[in-house]
Amino acid sequence: MREDLLHFIWNTHKVQPKQLKTTKGEPLVIWNYGIHNHGSGPDFFNAKVEVEGQLWAGNVEMHIKASDWYAHGHETDSNYDNVILHVVWEDDVLVFRKDKTEIPTLELKNVVTPNLLDSYQKLFKNSNHKFVNCENDFADVDDFILDNLLQRLYFERLEQKSKLIFDLLKDSKNDWEKVLFTLLLKNFGLKVNGDSFLSIAKALDFSVVRKLQNDVRALESVLFGMGGLFDKEEITDNYFSELKREFDFQSKKFKLSGTQIQKPEFFRLRPHNFPTIRLSQIANLYGSQQNLFRDLMNADTLVKIQTFFKISASSYWHNHFTFGKESSSSSKSLSKDFIDLLLINTIIPLKFCYAKKHGKDVNDELVSLITVLKPEKNTIINNFDKVGKKTKNALQSQSKIQLYNEYCSKNQCLKCAVGASLLNRIS
């Protein structure tokens, strides 16, 4: 038994509002269940109940056992002075407010249907051996319920991503161009080098990027140098030597320091994701765009946004993946899948935050953008597809990642529309 089931029972009115009695046998009528409180304080605010003919307005607190009232220290907390009803699964002790007045108690275990308890126990049975608790029933969930849940979860995920963006905005003194550069650099690093590239972006004054935008080789040398990619003294490659000299010059000119930077990794990466390739690509991106943030915020279609990312690494990298080791020639332009990831993880969240900062609603535009992108492929999405309801687009894949990370993996089934709908079927 978990307290979230008690909240679900109360919030969805699974007790008969009439013919109830307190644990002292007093007639109890529930006129208003109150508003569910997800913060500190009593569990439900502004309820209205009638106890033995006396109408009371105030708050409701819920516990598995009545004695939890004392275990949680509520008897000395003034936030609980206005509790008018204590709702528990098991009444094991009398409960009093701070002023020594007794609080009426409703015991739930005998006033809910056995079917509800059976379904609840079935949902959590063998949860350690399942991908998600509802995997046996997930495919049967009504499409309307699931679609609404996924759209809500997508914006919940955007809100989570907003925290980093607004932190970066504060650190940069409201320089949106700097924020865009930082996010792009982080996401060019993908999972393996994201933190490393982020440390480069934070250590590099964006004014240097602005000053070097028209000189791709100089900007490339600064990114490589800040990332510690010139540390191998044994390389005699001409391009390596030229870039290293360039970085030495720019480093003295702008007083650059990479002491706090996490060095990027090559291990476990496909060659096209090597830091050499990705850093060269972003140098060329900024070399081809003078007002990238402004232009991206004004672009309202996928095609318009994609045009800004039709760039490639510098010509040296056409037949290299690392300094001094020639390889067969291959395109080092950004792939469509990579651009889609930039849209999902950088451009759309940034559009969301920029609009929010200026009091604008661009939710429909963002939904239009995200729903034409292919869903991501990862373990979470693959497992959801196996249990039913194939993932159709990037909105759904982002939402399912949010669903799994914030609800399924934390057993928060009763805060999820899917879990609630499964219990509501039979109760």
From TrEMBL:
Recorded hits in InterPro entries, A to Z, give:
DUF2851
According to its UniProt record, what is one Pfam family this protein matches?
Answer: DUF2851
This protein is called DUF2851 family protein
Q: Which domain of life is it from?
A: Bacteria
User: What's the source species for this entry?
Assistant: Croceitalea rosinachiae
